[in-house]
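From the pipeline queue, job 12 of 40. The input is one protein chain; the requested action is below.

Action: predict structure.
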Amino acid sequence: MLPQCFRHRLLATSSIGRRSIFSSSLLVSQTTLCSNYRPVRINCQIRQCSSSNPDTESKRKVTLNELRRKQDDSKFLFNWRSALTALGLGGIVLAIMFRVRQQKDAERLKRQRAAIGKSMIGGDWELVNQDGQLQGTKDFLGKWLLLYFGFTHCPDICPDEIEKMIKVVEMTEADKETLPIIPVFISIDPERDTAERVKKYIKDFSNKLIGFTGTKEQVDKVAKTFRVYHSQGPRNAEDDYIVDHTVIMYLIDPDGKFIDYYGQNRTASEIAEVIKLQQLKFDLGKKKGWW
């Protein structure tokens, strides 16, 4: 048997050895764990990075490039479409403005021509009435006149137009807002239409109608004043003839000036309405002149 002291030393030594062995084994195990842990993490990282497929990446790049190219193309097309739309709208607006300008210019030119034409039509005149007395512009100042040029041997046109003129006068008299109008017949056939014949002729239409004639020089002068065309046709075996002439009624205002004219295509009601408007315009012009 070992001595007591040596036994205690041996136990202590064995316990220290065990502790050292345990601590060394623990250290080894920790070292093993640490050494084993790091490669695993590194290997995981390597797998994650190496898990991507090169073909997939290239496809993704191609897809992104296509999307960008399509976006660029859409922007390019959008810009061109916007530009073409703007140009189209601008062209339409310019065409409309040009058309309106043409219409305004045409209307202005028409008014200018009408004003020039009116200034060239009408003036002072004097003829022999159905009673054989000289009468003219000065005797009708302050009154509205409606003149018609014709001849008593006219087969149909003159009677129709004179009847229409009388109807216009009656319509204006029935309208309280319209001033009375004097109907006037002027012959352009002085060779046959004497004062007596004119007096007899106008009685068949209305007692309101006043007739005029005169010498060839007097009639030609009045016809020229109102720009009335008249031409004697060929004579037949009975020494009869037809006079070709302008078929127009002339409206004269109270100042003795020419205002308007009405052709054969106008109806009596249309002429009456236009005369009413002309009278209103004349009155408004006078009122403005007073102020």
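Job complete. The longest strand covers residues 144-150.
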